[in-house]
Specification:
With about 325 residues, the chain is mainly α. It is built from 17 helices and no strands. It is globular, with a radius of gyration of 25 Å.
């Protein structure tokens, strides 16, 4: 009898471990529903498994089921109050919930969001994500409910002490929001000089576009393309050319290069490149070519309304 019980216990344990391992694989594969199901089953037999609770919170979060994610992270931060990352994840899920509800309901949540991020930053002086969250929170909140540019810069400075690139990007973000474009540009450029990642270049490109400076955006994208050799950047150059009706020959050349070298890892479907080419030919007053490319875009993604709208405009040439 004892032997039977031991075998039963071991087999159940192995089965449970297998369920958790399967869930991890599903999370990597972005099959969050299946991960949720495996973890829920696992936790029925192992309700105190810390890793499984966190993974279940992650699975819910990826599905934007914020209440369920909050419930899991709350268990963790209540039971392990000195773990900075549990406070950070709890605050993040609360923050996402605040974005998904009415402004009145969000006001009742923001205080807890801020408290969770502050606690995470306090518990871990090197927690970069918590400091980024505080920068974004203090920048985005109105002053009447606790927003503060000076506090945002405080955490941007802390980020800079931990990681120069993160600090420069954070300061660029703060100054861009605070309508200080010269300072924003300065810090985004410092981030590129210090780190030079694709993200650094993207931030500066987006900044130039927001400032209605497309030529600078194109120059920055070309520099990024030369450094990183990313096919997706050809699309971005073509997009800016098409959107702003500038450097059309360059835009056409880049979009065709993007299409020639396209693969699934590029992210943007070919149909969007067809659409941008249609825009460029529309700017050139070449109705025949514009119609050819917009029809290809519509065939590729027939449900995209902006493609249909663009065809109407082209037909009026």
């Amino acid at each position: 009898m004892k032997k039977f019980l031991w075998i039963f216990f071991v087999s159940t344990f192995c089965f449970s471990q297998s369920s958790k391992d399967k869930a991890k694989t599903y999370l990597v594969d972005k099959d969050y529903k299946k991960a949720q199901q495996e973890l829920t089953t696992f936790l029925e037999s192992n309700p105190s498994d810390i890793e499984a609770i966190e993974l279940l919170g992650d699975a819910y979060g990826h599905q934007k089921q914020w209440d369920e994610a909050i419930e899991q992270y709350e268990k963790l931060k209540d039971n392990y109050p000195k773990n900075a990352n549990y406070h950070y994840k709890y605050g993040g899920a609360l923050g996402m919930k605040a974005l998904s509800v009415s402004k009145i309901k969000a006001l009742g949540i923001i205080g807890d969001v801020k408290s969770a991020f502050l606690k995470a930053a306090e518990l871990d002086p090197k927690h970069i994500d918590a400091r980024w969250a505080l920068v974004e929170l203090y920048v985005s909140l109105p002053g009447i409910v606790g927003g503060s540019i000076s506090k945002a810069l405080k955490y941007a400075n802390e980020l800079q002490n931990l990681s120069k690139v993160d600090g420069y990007l954070a300061k660029g973000y703060v100054y861009e929001y605070d309508d200080e474009p010269e300072l924003a540009e300065k810090y985004y450029k410092l981030a590129i000089k210090e780190g030079g990642s694709v993200t650094c270049y993207e931030k500066l490109t987006n900044f130039y576009e927001s400032q209605e400076q497309p030529d600078k955006a194109i120059d920055n994208l070309e520099e990024a393309q030369q450094k990183h050799q990313r096919n997706a950047m050809y699309y971005q150059i073509g997009k800016v050319c098409a959107d702003y009706n500038i450097q059309l020959e360059k835009g056409e050349k880049c979009l065709k290069a993007y299409l020639s070298n396209h693969s699934s890892k590029d992210g943007v479907p070919k149909a969007w490149a067809y659409y941008r080419l249609a825009q460029i030919y529309k700017h050139k007053k070449n109705k025949t070519e514009a119609l050819k490319w917009i029809d290809k875009a519509i065939t590729g993604l027939p449900k995209i309304e902006v493609f249909q709208e663009e065809k109407v405009l082209i037909s009026k040439l």
